[in-house]
């Protein structure tokens, strides 16, 4: 950064807008793994907060998700009531719409509620895309 460069102030408001940037290696299949340990939403039955860790894994095509916008997007669920299954699939759908990845998996590990832990796993595969075979090293 130059001496006179101005930093843009960070947003202090949640947003449903997911920003992207160009994949620097679109010709290569590679994995991006993002862990979001502070996801919160509200129980639609009681209004009490639900807490989860989101694990996002994807193989980008042309675009990658910009992390600041992802943080503000995740923050936007804090005051929304949502069943675990519905919110996990909604987040996956929004990410797929924004990024159009070759593959994406969202694992949402919810903290205990009423003595029950819930983990929801949702996946997307682009038409015609197949995972490369695993590499076994000696």
Radius of gyration: 17 Å
Q: Assembly type of the shown chains?
A: single chain
The CATH topology of the domain at 31-125 comes to: GTP Cyclohydrolase I, domain 2
| Average pLDDT rating | 92
Order of helices and strands: EEEEHHEE
CATH superfamily of the domain at 31-125: GTP cyclohydrolase I, C-terminal domain/NADPH-dependent 7-cyano-7-deazaguanine reductase, N-terminal domain
Spans of at least 5 consecutive residues whose pLDDT stays below 50 are: none
The class by helix and strand makeup works out as: alpha+beta
Proportion of residues in extended strands: 35-45%
In DSSP terms (H or I, runs of 4 or more residues), the helix count works out at 2
Explain what the structure shows.
By secondary structure, this protein is an alpha+beta fold. The protein has a domain of 95 residues: GTP Cyclohydrolase I, domain 2 (2-Layer Sandwich), CATH 3.30.1130.10. The protein has two helices and six strands; from the N terminus they run E-E-E-E-H-H-E-E. The strands form two sheets. The protein has a four-stranded antiparallel sheet with strand order 2-3-5-6, with helices on one face. A two-stranded antiparallel sheet has the order 1-4. The chain is globular, with a radius of gyration of 17 Å. It starts with 19 loop residues before the first strand and ends in a 13-residue tail after the last strand. The mean pLDDT is 92.
Quick rundown:
This protein has 138 residues and is an alpha+beta fold.
